[in-house]
Design goal:
CATH architecture: Beta Barrel
Number of strands: 12
Radius of gyration: 14 Å
CATH superfamily: RNA polymerase II/Efflux pump adaptor protein, barrel-sandwich hybrid domain
Number of helices: 5
Helix content: 10-25%
Length: about 150
């Protein structure tokens, strides 16, 4: 895992760097999406998430959820086209999941992608993703911290 200014960037994931979204390919053919560590740090403490309903078909770039934080309200855009198959219900109990564990318990949405191979080509992974995030973190002067209990 790469770390830059305390921001974790796991090199095994795919990233839409522009939208600050990570993608993990699952064994069952679905994909899991979440906010990156730099995104959660910039947003601040998450106070609420409003998800699109399970079963909704989303095109690449459409909002899969609305994120409300102490500093910001805005969309969580999907970097892939697909059907919403699950949302992280854990946020109902703990809205800080993305702040505490952005790549684990803090995932947001699972999709069944419909154009995976062609759209994955638009995402970065590995060292290329880490270097792109290091530049973005530097440009925005981001220092990642995690919310405590």
């Amino acid at each position: 895992m790469g770390v830059y200014r305390a921001c974790e960037i796991p090199e095994t994931l795919y990233y839409d760097v522009e939208r600050d979204v990570w993608v993990r390919l699952e064994a069952d053919g679905t994909v899991t999406l979440g906010m990156t560590d730099p995104a959660q740090a910039q947003a601040g403490r998450i106070v609420n998430l409003t998800f699109k309903p399970v079963g909704r078909l989303l095109r690449r770039g459409q909002s899969a959820a609305i994120v409300e934080s102490a500093k910001w309200v805005g969309p969580f855009p999907t970097p892939l086209t697909g059907e919403v198959v699950a949302v992280n219900e854990g946020f109902r109990r703990d809205p800080l999941l993305a702040n505490k564990d952005p790549y684990g318990a803090g995932w947001l949405v699972r999709l069944r992608p419909t154009h995976l191979q062609e759209e994955l080509r638009e995402l970065l992974t590995g060292q290329e993703a880490f270097e792109a995030y290091a530049r973005k973190i530097e440009e925005r002067n981001v220092h990642c911290i995690r919310c405590a209990e």
